[in-house]
Amino acid sequence: MSAVDIPDAQEIYQKGEKPTNGTVGNLTHEQENALRNLWTKILAHIDKMADKPLKVSCNLVKQTAFVSTESLPDTPEAIDKWYKENKELADNPKSQTVRDRLYLQGNRDLTVPMGFRPLFQSDHNVRYFSHVFWQACMLHGNPDSYLLNFLRATLWDETQAFERLVFSVNWRATQAIDKLMWYGDLEQNNRMMEKGLTLTKGFDKFGYPVVVVRIRLNKPSERSDGDVERFAAFCLENIAWLAREHGEWAMLLYDFTGFKMENVDMAFIKNLLAIIKETYPQ
Q1: Separation CA 136–CA 143 (nearest Å)
Q2: Is residue 244 within 8 Å of residue 141, measured between CB atoms?
Q3: First vs last Cα of the chain: how many Å apart?
Q4: Which sign does the torsion angle of CA 84, 86, 91, 97 carry?
Q5: What is the helix, strand, coil percentage profile of the chain, to 5?
Q6: Residues 34-53: pLDDT tens digits?
């Protein structure tokens, strides 16, 4: 969870109280009922959406030109052909991905395999609510933990928790977050990755991982459209994985050392906060 979700999170942290209330094994009778009711709602929604595919749009978390070429065979010859036809794009520092950089440096073997397949299906253009939901649950180890994130974030309002959970799963489906994470840093902007805009640096006093965002390294003029949304989603998914391994929390530290006007990026800030609030309540 984050301070965006819990009004008194900063006060709790300053007191040195590690939050356990509302977690698996630490539920009151009322909280157990709320969890049970949320499961009833979400299972009913899964049945309702069973034969209704969600179309992948990637309108927010845009794919790179390479990954969006679904018909590209997973062979060295096909990849050579693609780069020959798209050399100008691959060699442009503003749009160049880590994959592009590796290929142009002669490390072709590191640009393959592609081979992504959505969970339980073969059609790349759609996702099913149940598949995406259970995949998200598996990432938490205990499915109850996934639902409890939304209940705590909404102060145990079952209706709001249900709406935010459905929104989050739909977002993961339509933005193909499974595909984004399959390709990992290969499809991230090379400049942003080389600079180390975000990095994980140790743990805080509760043992939660500390993720540092170095604002001075963020320069909108040095990247292409879509890079920041893709990078934000990629980083937040990785941070969420770290948090799940260390008590479901993570400390995000924004380092403004050396900050200048050229680093101002309201689109990035708004996008980051929106994703955190609506899709990553942990």
Answers
A1: 8
A2: yes
A3: 3
A4: negative
A5: 55, 10, 40
A6: 999 999 999 999 999 999 99
